[in-house]
Amino acid sequence: MIEVTLEELASDVKEATINYWFYEEGDSVEEGEDLVEVIVEGNALKLAAPCSGILNEVYFTEGDSVSAGDVLCEIEENKEG
Predict the structure, then answer these.
(1) CA angle 18, 79, 72 (to 5 degrees)
(2) Which of 20, 48, 64, 81 has an alpha carbon 20 to 30 Å from 35's alpha carbon atom?
């Protein structure tokens, strides 16, 4: 499993709000595609999927506040050949 975390976006920004998930649990995602949109200090920021696979579990819902370092979701990575 690959954990997708909210990285520290700037030295003075420690919190964001989940605005929109582009996928639901169980959906197939592709590396580099938009995965989740967060709001940081009034600005929308899209986070991309770090790998291709299945969105296994989402830990926060739209409207939830998240902090730098929080695990947002897990992706079950596709195993090639």
Answers:
(1) 15
(2) 81
